[in-house]
Amino acid sequence: MKTNQLQKILNQIPSSIYLAIAVIVFAASNPITRRVVDIGNQNLIDGRNPISLCNVLFVGNICALGLMLFIFHRHWHHENLKALTTKDWISLTITGILSGAIAPALIFTALGITNITNIVLIGRIEPILSLVLGFWLLSIPLNPWIVSGSVVSFAGIVVTALLSSSAQNLTMGAFQLGTGEVLVALAAVITSISTIVNKLQLQSIPIGIFMIYRNIVGSIIFFLIAIILYGKEHFADAFSPLLWQLMLLYATLIVVFGQLCWLTGLTKATITELNLASLCNPIAAIIMAYLILGEVPTQAQYMGGSLLLVGFIFSFIGNFRQNKINRDSSKVTHIKAMEIVVGFKGV
To answer: Where in the cell is it found (predicted)?
Structure first.
């Protein structure tokens, strides 16, 4: 009875609350990761850092998997699994590879060669791409305010990428882009594709199956890629007690709690609400980078961030006006579009 009452209360919480909590958690994730790696540098094992970025990602996923199995094991019963089609499993596998292995690997590599603020600002290309894909695949109506906000935000990303870069550079014609910034941009493209796929999948696939399967696939693919690129020695300190202690805490807060809030909000939110939540992230993330790491934004980052803030305001106005004018029709459009794209049959 108490469980049912708690479930009812949780279901009554607006999607915006879940998304706001997720934004705060995700904003702190990169600074916390950098801080955890710094702790490893102070506790070397035979000259090696036991809390390397690869170990953080791999062991963190294993810890998160254990927590997810404890929370969602009931979702893995015969009826739920039998209801999934071959297309569902293929989509889940693709999503697991993209958002569970490749995108995190790119972000974690960038963490080692560029500062958090650059990662945050350039990563904001993700909501812009999500908006474009939502319009293209889900036929989500857009208004001039949202389009203008996305254009201004993209200009801020370009300014940040061109005027400030990491120590390692890639030369592209007359421009030089930092390797870290390029990796972040690639990760953002992959994540935006996964966001749209997630929106479609979560309408018919239990969240427990989605999260656990994505975690397993992502962990396996990442492990294989790391072994191929760096060799078995790369995970020599993967069983360090300090690493596992920190990763249990990291997995609980960042991987499980943050993703659970995001995916719960995702099932009830509109694409424009997701875009708005994503655009809020850089403000929170820059604040977290300052509070946790003491990173002070550069002039280029202030310029790019200012444009992003203007874009955020435009998008906020557009989101508010669109929901006020035609709140119900956007939901109908989502359902119709999902029926066309993935054969959505209702709850």
So the answer is: Cell membrane
**pLDDT tens digits for range 224-281:** 988 888 788 778 888 889 999 988 888 888 877 887 888 788 777 776 677 677 667 7
Mean pLDDT within 189-204: 76
Q: Answer yes or no: is 13 within a domain.
A: no
pLDDT of 173 higher than 50: no
Is there a domain that residue 202 lies in? yes
Q: Which of 143, 133, 127 is nearest to 326 (CA)?
A: 143
Give φ, ψ of 334 to 5 degrees: -60, -50
The domain tally of the chain equals 1
Three-class DSSP category at 204: coil
Q: Which residues contact 280 (CB under 8 A, 6 or more apart)?
A: 20, 23, 312
Higher pLDDT pick, 199 / 190: 190
* E runs forming strands in the chain: 169-172, 175-178
CB 292 within 8 A of CB 31: yes
- Residue range 323-342, pLDDT digits in tens: 665 554 444 333 333 332 32
Rounded to whole angstroms, the Cα distance separating 196 from 155 reads 23
pTM score, whole prediction = 0.71
The confidence band for 76, taking pLDDT boundaries of 50, 70 and 90, is very high
Sign of dihedral through CA atoms 203, 122, 113, 231? positive
**Euclidean distance between CA atoms 256 and 333, whole angstroms:** 30
More confident position, 268 or 91: 91
Does 10 reside within a domain? no
Residue 322 CA to residue 92 CA, distance in Å, equals 31
274: containing domain: 23-342
H-helix or E-strand spanning residue 147: helix 144-163
DSSP 3-state assignment of 175?
Answer: strand
Rounded CA separation 41/76 (Å)? 40
Q: How many helices (H) and strands (E) does the chain have?
A: 16, 2
